[in-house]
Every structure is written in structure tokens, then in C-alpha cells.
Amino acid sequence: MTHIITEICLRDGGCAEVCPVECIIPGKPQEEWPLYYIDRDTCIDCGACVPECPWEAIFPEEDVPSDYVGKGTITVHGSVLPQRINKPQGTPGFDQVYDGTNGRGEAVHLEGTRILKKGEVVDLTPGTALNDAFFQEGPGYSAKD
Ligand code: SF4
Ligand code: SF4
After folding, report:
1. I need a labelling partner for 45 at 20 to 30 A (CA). Which of 37, 69, 92, 132 fits?
2. Is 1 in the pocket of ligand 2 (CB under 6 A)?
């Protein structure tokens, strides 16, 4: 099994810093691969990345929800912020810019997001296939350079 990063990831990056096998890779080009992605062939399913994600975007593969309920707001590094869902740039309906900072105070800029309303139900399971596509058809580990 593996863990999966879902589309509520806003590229904070904290997960990649704690992964003991360094199998979490930032998607690049960001416009096309806007999340971080986990290499299922290397992930040892330790769960260390889960509590590091301020957006609570990481799930064990078997628990990725098809009926995820939006929280409305979420506390990230001490600030209460609207929760968002993040898609490749140009995805219809995902045209809200997110400008934030990660846990190291670095700027995060995303152009393909939209706010997830409190109580809104979304299917996060398609992210599993996208995660695998990043390694099989996309840049995979070469995005690390
Ligand atoms: S910590 Fe969460 S928001 Fe940040 S890159 Fe990892 S999964 Fe995405
Ligand atoms: S579950 Fe463990 S090995 Fe897998 S991506 Fe998360 S930190 Fe890395």
C-alpha cells in the first residue's frame, strides 16, 4: 500500500521534509502538476507525512475519500484560512489565485485553485490515478532537480 496526496494539497512541502525514504516529489512544471506526489513503489507506508500536512491532504490509499466533506476553513501555521482544492492551471472553474507561505516562510503561488465550501462534498479518489501518472507518464523523480 501507499499514501496518496489529494487535491487539497497546496504545496506546503512539509511532508517531503519528513519522509524517511524521500519519495515525495514536488510536481513540476507546477502549472501541469500542481501537487506534491508520492512514489508508491518506494513509500513504506509509515504515515510520518500525514501529521506534517497543515492542509490535511494526505491519506492512506485505502482511506482516500470519495465523499470528502469540505471544512470551510482550516488552521494553517496558526492562521485560519479558507480550504481550497488545487487543479492544473486552466482547469475550468479553478481560476482562483492562492498566495500563501509554507512552513518555512517561503512564498507559495498557485493559479488553479478554488475555495472548497464548508459542507461541500467532493470525490478525492481521482487523485490516486494522477499521482501514479506523475511517475509513469510525467517527470517523476526528475522533478526533484
Ligand atoms: S504538506 Fe500537505 S500541502 Fe504540503 S506538499 Fe505535502 S501534501 Fe501538499
Ligand atoms: S507514508 Fe512514510 S514513506 Fe510513505 S510518503 Fe509518507 S512519509 Fe514517505
Report:
1. 69
2. no
Residue 127 in this model has a pLDDT that exceeds 90: no
**Whether 24 contacts 4, CB under 8 Å:** no
Report the separation in Å between the CA atom of 24 and the middle of ligand 1, taken as the mean of its atom positions: 9
Backbone angles phi and psi of 68, in degrees to 5: -65, 135
The rounded distance, in Å, linking the Cα atoms of 52 and 38 is: 14
Distance, in Å, from the CA atom of 3 to the CA atom of 27, rounded to the nearest integer, reads: 16
Number of domains in the chain: 1
What band does 144 get if pLDDT is binned at 50, 70 and 90? confident
Decide: pTM greater than 0.85: yes
Ligand 1 pocket by Cβ (under 6 Å):
5, 9-15, 36, 52-53, 55, 57-58
Distance 12 CA to ligand 1 centre (A): 5
Structural domain including 19 reads 3-144
